[in-house]
Fold this sequence. Notes:
The protein is α/β, with parallel strands linked by helices and 186 residues long.
Amino acid sequence: MAVAPPTATERASRVKLMIFDVDGVLTDGGLLFTAEGDTMKGFNSMDGHGMKLLREAGIDTAIITGRKSGIVAARVKDLNVSHVYQGVQDKPAAFADLLQKTGLNAGDCGYMGDDWVDLAVMLRVGFAAAPANSHPEVIARAHWVSEARGGYGAAREVCDALLRAQHKYEALLAVACSGEQRGLVG
Protein backbone atom coordinates (compact mmCIF):
# COMPACT_ATOMS: atom_id res chain seq x y z
CA MET A 1 0.00 0.00 0.00
CA ALA A 2 1.34 3.42 -0.97
CA VAL A 3 2.11 5.87 1.82
CA ALA A 4 0.88 9.42 1.32
CA PRO A 5 3.64 12.04 1.21
CA PRO A 6 3.93 14.25 4.28
CA THR A 7 1.72 17.32 4.36
CA ALA A 8 3.18 20.80 4.52
CA THR A 9 2.23 20.96 8.21
CA GLU A 10 4.01 17.67 8.93
CA ARG A 11 7.06 18.95 7.11
CA ALA A 12 6.95 22.30 8.96
CA SER A 13 6.71 20.51 12.30
CA ARG A 14 10.21 19.09 11.77
CA VAL A 15 12.03 22.31 10.83
CA LYS A 16 14.95 23.17 13.11
CA LEU A 17 16.54 25.74 10.76
CA MET A 18 14.63 28.08 8.44
CA ILE A 19 16.63 29.57 5.58
CA PHE A 20 15.55 32.62 3.61
CA ASP A 21 16.56 34.11 0.29
CA VAL A 22 16.56 37.92 0.42
CA ASP A 23 15.55 39.56 -2.87
CA GLY A 24 11.94 38.64 -3.64
CA VAL A 25 11.43 37.00 -0.23
CA LEU A 26 12.48 39.44 2.50
CA THR A 27 12.21 42.31 0.00
CA ASP A 28 9.82 42.91 -2.88
CA GLY A 29 12.62 42.10 -5.30
CA GLY A 30 13.00 45.69 -6.46
CA LEU A 31 16.46 47.22 -6.45
CA LEU A 32 16.83 50.97 -6.05
CA PHE A 33 20.18 52.49 -7.02
CA THR A 34 21.55 55.83 -5.89
CA ALA A 35 23.52 58.06 -8.29
CA GLU A 36 26.66 56.72 -6.60
CA GLY A 37 25.64 53.14 -7.44
CA ASP A 38 24.64 52.12 -3.91
CA THR A 39 21.68 49.76 -3.63
CA MET A 40 18.70 50.39 -1.39
CA LYS A 41 16.15 47.79 -0.29
CA GLY A 42 13.04 47.86 1.85
CA PHE A 43 12.31 45.24 4.51
CA ASN A 44 9.02 44.42 6.20
CA SER A 45 9.18 44.77 9.99
CA MET A 46 6.62 41.99 10.48
CA ASP A 47 8.85 39.61 8.53
CA GLY A 48 11.72 40.52 10.84
CA HIS A 49 9.60 40.01 13.94
CA GLY A 50 8.55 36.59 12.68
CA MET A 51 12.21 35.61 12.28
CA LYS A 52 12.89 36.74 15.84
CA LEU A 53 9.93 34.69 17.07
CA LEU A 54 11.36 31.62 15.34
CA ARG A 55 14.61 32.08 17.19
CA GLU A 56 12.76 32.56 20.47
CA ALA A 57 10.92 29.29 19.80
CA GLY A 58 14.21 27.46 19.24
CA ILE A 59 14.12 27.46 15.43
CA ASP A 60 17.38 28.80 14.04
CA THR A 61 17.49 31.14 11.01
CA ALA A 62 19.82 31.61 8.07
CA ILE A 63 20.15 33.71 4.92
CA ILE A 64 21.51 32.49 1.58
CA THR A 65 21.48 35.24 -1.04
CA GLY A 66 23.17 35.85 -4.36
CA ARG A 67 23.79 39.55 -3.81
CA LYS A 68 26.21 41.05 -1.32
CA SER A 69 24.93 44.16 0.41
CA GLY A 70 25.79 46.23 3.45
CA ILE A 71 22.06 46.85 3.85
CA VAL A 72 21.43 43.11 4.17
CA ALA A 73 24.37 42.75 6.58
CA ALA A 74 22.88 45.47 8.79
CA ARG A 75 19.39 43.96 8.67
CA VAL A 76 20.45 40.41 9.53
CA LYS A 77 22.66 41.73 12.33
CA ASP A 78 19.64 43.62 13.71
CA LEU A 79 17.61 40.39 13.51
CA ASN A 80 20.42 38.32 15.02
CA VAL A 81 20.32 35.81 12.14
CA SER A 82 22.72 33.01 13.05
CA HIS A 83 24.05 32.04 9.62
CA VAL A 84 24.54 34.50 6.77
CA TYR A 85 25.75 33.67 3.26
CA GLN A 86 25.91 36.71 0.95
CA GLY A 87 27.28 36.98 -2.57
CA VAL A 88 26.61 33.28 -3.14
CA GLN A 89 26.89 32.03 -6.70
CA ASP A 90 26.36 28.38 -5.75
CA LYS A 91 23.45 28.10 -3.30
CA PRO A 92 23.64 24.28 -3.01
CA ALA A 93 27.31 24.57 -1.96
CA ALA A 94 26.41 27.21 0.64
CA PHE A 95 23.60 24.94 1.86
CA ALA A 96 26.02 22.00 2.16
CA ASP A 97 28.40 24.20 4.16
CA LEU A 98 25.52 25.27 6.41
CA LEU A 99 24.56 21.65 7.04
CA GLN A 100 28.16 20.79 7.88
CA LYS A 101 28.45 23.74 10.29
CA THR A 102 25.15 23.05 12.06
CA GLY A 103 25.27 19.26 12.06
CA LEU A 104 21.72 19.16 10.73
CA ASN A 105 20.46 17.08 7.83
CA ALA A 106 18.55 18.56 4.90
CA GLY A 107 15.23 17.21 6.21
CA ASP A 108 15.63 19.36 9.35
CA CYS A 109 15.68 22.53 7.24
CA GLY A 110 13.17 24.78 5.57
CA TYR A 111 13.92 27.21 2.75
CA MET A 112 11.90 30.09 1.32
CA GLY A 113 12.86 31.15 -2.18
CA ASP A 114 11.21 32.81 -5.16
CA ASP A 115 13.14 32.09 -8.35
CA TRP A 116 15.03 29.42 -10.25
CA VAL A 117 18.30 30.05 -8.37
CA ASP A 118 16.53 28.77 -5.24
CA LEU A 119 15.19 25.52 -6.70
CA ALA A 120 18.24 23.31 -6.09
CA VAL A 121 18.13 24.06 -2.35
CA MET A 122 14.33 23.94 -2.17
CA LEU A 123 14.37 20.44 -3.66
CA ARG A 124 16.79 19.25 -0.95
CA VAL A 125 15.14 20.61 2.21
CA GLY A 126 12.37 19.00 4.22
CA PHE A 127 10.10 22.06 3.90
CA ALA A 128 10.15 24.29 0.81
CA ALA A 129 8.21 27.57 0.89
CA ALA A 130 7.59 30.33 -1.62
CA PRO A 131 6.02 33.81 -1.62
CA ALA A 132 2.79 34.18 -3.59
CA ASN A 133 4.51 36.11 -6.39
CA SER A 134 7.30 33.58 -6.96
CA HIS A 135 8.12 32.23 -10.38
CA PRO A 136 5.55 29.56 -11.38
CA GLU A 137 8.23 26.82 -11.48
CA VAL A 138 9.10 27.61 -7.85
CA ILE A 139 5.46 27.59 -6.77
CA ALA A 140 4.97 24.23 -8.50
CA ARG A 141 7.78 22.72 -6.42
CA ALA A 142 7.04 24.35 -3.05
CA HIS A 143 5.38 22.45 -0.21
CA TRP A 144 3.80 25.69 1.04
CA VAL A 145 3.00 29.04 -0.64
CA SER A 146 2.19 32.24 1.25
CA GLU A 147 -0.77 34.45 0.47
CA ALA A 148 1.47 37.53 0.72
CA ARG A 149 4.00 38.68 -1.82
CA GLY A 150 7.72 38.73 -1.10
CA GLY A 151 8.63 41.77 1.01
CA TYR A 152 5.01 42.22 2.08
CA GLY A 153 4.65 39.67 4.87
CA ALA A 154 5.43 36.37 3.10
CA ALA A 155 8.27 35.58 5.51
CA ARG A 156 6.05 36.35 8.51
CA GLU A 157 3.41 33.99 7.15
CA VAL A 158 5.88 31.13 6.90
CA CYS A 159 7.24 31.91 10.38
CA ASP A 160 3.70 31.77 11.79
CA ALA A 161 3.05 28.50 9.90
CA LEU A 162 6.17 26.93 11.42
CA LEU A 163 5.24 28.12 14.91
CA ARG A 164 1.71 26.73 14.54
CA ALA A 165 2.94 23.40 13.15
CA GLN A 166 5.30 23.06 16.12
CA HIS A 167 2.60 24.09 18.63
CA LYS A 168 4.58 27.15 19.77
CA TYR A 169 2.41 29.93 18.33
CA GLU A 170 -0.19 30.17 21.10
CA ALA A 171 2.40 30.33 23.91
CA LEU A 172 4.28 33.14 22.16
CA LEU A 173 1.01 34.97 21.49
CA ALA A 174 0.04 34.64 25.17
CA VAL A 175 3.33 36.25 26.20
CA ALA A 176 2.72 39.11 23.76
CA CYS A 177 -0.82 39.61 25.06
CA SER A 178 0.39 39.62 28.68
CA GLY A 179 2.61 42.62 28.02
CA GLU A 180 5.78 40.88 29.18
CA GLN A 181 8.83 42.55 27.71
CA ARG A 182 11.07 40.26 25.70
CA GLY A 183 13.02 42.85 23.77
CA LEU A 184 11.68 41.67 20.42
CA VAL A 185 11.03 44.23 17.72
CA GLY A 186 10.70 43.67 13.98
